[in-house]
Write a structure and sequence with these properties.
single chain, mainly alpha, 2 strands
């Protein structure tokens, strides 16, 4: 040590508004989704299925891709909307979509097979979306500490 003393006491802490917590949680969910989808391409047969025009065993169509894109766009948009929507609408949008995406991930995990990476990322995604619902549900009222 160079002879300087460390100041005692607690580390500085700031209160983070629930909007920032929700936005950060949606961003983290998206990173897990992206990596899960990329890693899935390394599973035997997945890349060939893509080249054969199949997704989840279905023929790839414009409608399937638009529907999938719309479903995946919602968490991406929630990163922004969690910061800018008015509190009432924001709270309910986060609760609704948090529940939907928690359910979707639980369903997907049940039918994804025994791939450990997918179960691992799925567990993290479920935890994150449950936290989204929790923070939105317990959103503090004005004047609460």
């Amino acid at each position: 040590m160079n002879g300087t003393k460390r100041a005692g006491g607690a580390l500085d802490e700031i209160k983070i508004h629930v909007k920032f917590k929700l936005s950060a949680l949606w961003a983290a969910v998206m990173f897990c989704y992206i990596y899960g989808d990329i890693f899935r391409l390394f599973q035997h047969g997945e890349l060939q299925a893509m080249l054969d025009g199949k997704m989840w065993g279905l023929p790839v169509t414009q409608g399937l891709l638009v529907g999938t894109s719309a479903f995946i766009a919602i968490p991406s948009i929630m990163v922004f909307l969690s910061l800018v929507l008015r509190p009432g609408l924001n709270r309910w949008a986060n609760i609704l979509f948090g529940v939907i995406y928690t359910g979707t991930m639980l369903y997907t995990m049940m039918y994804s097979g025994p791939w450990a990476f997918y179960i691992f990322l799925g567990f993290i995604e479920v935890t994150l979306t449950v936290l989204i619902v929790w923070y939105a549900w317990t959103w503090p009222r004005q004047g609460e500490a």
